[in-house]
Write a structure and sequence with these properties.
alpha/beta, binds 2-acetamido-2-deoxy-beta-D-glucopyranose, binds zinc ion
């Protein structure tokens, strides 16, 4: 949609005479393709949240858009993440299962939408555990809602609390620097936030991830674990191996399609050929190099999204909603991380 508007605007600039209606369309009433069954979530009742048990004291809580993990030990509760949108409901979810207090809060990564409710669990003896890069990023923008970690680590950290064990591992930057794998081995539950979105395509701009090669590699790193339940931090259910494999296939498909589109843009293709597009833009906007670049990047991403959606619409939720944004990020990564520069290569 975004790009359609952008392209329409660009085309309006090209020729006011060819296109009669150049007014801005309203984005508020946009409708998208119906969601496939894969995108379904667990039933959220009147309490506003749902708790799923994986046995041996491991639980997932979701309010439909976010999810978290908690482990009940015989000495206290380990909580992983505290999204503000679940907020106090997390206190009730845990309170209905055990009288023991939360003694350890693990941060998957530094993003506020996943940990902005952490202060609700702060207390004199409560430990906050995170990767050192998460500490660094939280300390850059101090915020009382996300207490600074009291325990940090660089590679691996085994958290033992009473009868429960969580293995925390860092394999390098992916969605963000400091985003860790959280493994409850006994219960076969793996959590890695903002990488796989079970049943849906990734959130906008590939989950607004900062290291796309690391984020793509994380799909295989997830599959190295012998997990039964995968918590991605998002939407209304956990995933299984099939969900992870399906998203991996989507991402590799997007990668291939965007790579081919960049290569096509180096030709005189009438839709994405960069030379033709840029000449038209520069004719109307003399010397505006950024304008020429924008139309090239946008048309490349839109073409790649169109090709990708022919396969994925109806297979994963909301392929049409963030298809353009995900393609845009993939085009960006292919150009500057993978050296697939197409018309911007050595000449
Ligand atoms: C640990 O203890 C808690 C509380 O007694 C219990 O619910 C849980 O099943 C136990 N977990 C393991 C892994 O033994
Ligand atoms: C149990 O859950 C209900 C519904 O969410 C909540 O009102 C109540 O406070 C919870 N109980 C405890 C002890 O947290
Ligand atoms: C994985 O989860 C999906 C969606 O809930 C389900 O349709 C599928 O049967 C599951 N696959 C396995 C192997 O459990
Ligand atoms: C993408 O698909 C839309 C809808 O079919 C079409 O209007 C648009 O021109 C296509 N864009 C590109 C760059 O191929
Ligand atoms: Zn995030």
């Amino acid at each position: 949609m975004h790009l359609l508007l952008t392209l329409t605007a660009a085309l309006c600039l090209f020729s006011q005479t060819l296109f009669s209606d150049c007014s801005h369309a309203s984005a508020t009433a946009t409708t998208f393709a119906p969601l496939p069954a894969t995108a379904g979530g667990l039933p959220i009742g009147p309490s506003g949240y749902y708790v799923e048990s994986y046995g041996d004291g491991a639980y997932m809580v979701t309010e439909g858009a976010y999810n978290v993990l908690f482990l009940v030990s015989d000495r206290g509760v380990i909580l992983v993440d505290a999204p503000p949108t679940i907020g106090r409901k997390l206190l009730y979810a845990i309170g209905n299962i055990t009288n023991l207090p939360v003694t350890h809060v693990v941060y998957s990564h530094h993003h506020s939408d996943h940990i902005g409710g952490a202060y609700l669990f702060a207390g004199k003896d409560v430990k906050f555990i995170a990767h050192a890069d998460t500490y660094y990023q939280l300390a850059q923008v101090p915020n009382e809602k996300t207490p600074l970690p009291t325990v940090t680590f660089h590679e691996d950290y085994i958290l033992r609390v009473g009868n429960q064990t969580l293995e925390l591992s860092y394999k390098g930057p992916n969605h963000t620097p400091g985003n860790i794998f959280i493994w409850a081995k006994r219960q076969k539950v793996l959590m890695l936030v903002d990488v796989v979105y079970p049943g849906w395509i990734p959130f906008t701009y590939l989950g607004v991830s900062t290291n796309i090669p690391g984020w793509i590699a994380a799909h295989d790193q997830i599959l190295e674990y012998q997990f039964e339940h995968y918590l991605g931090g998002h939407l209304g259910r956990a995933g299984n191996r099939t969900d992870v494999e399906l998203q991996k296939e989507y991402v590799l498909d997007l990668f291939d399609n965007c790579k081919k589109t960049i290569e096509l843009s180096a030709t005189d293709n009438p839709v994405v050929g960069a030379a033709g597009l840029q000449a038209s833009v520069l004719k109307l906007n003399p010397d505006n190099t950024w304008a020429a670049f924008k139309v090239f990047l946008d048309s490349t991403a839109e073409y790649c999204a169109n090709v990708t959606n022919q396969k994925w619409l109806g297979k994963l939720g909301a392929a049409d909603v963030f298809g353009f944004e995900n393609a845009f990020t993939m085009v960006k990564a292919l150009r500057i991380d993978y050296d697939i520069l197409g018309p911007g290569g050595v000449r």
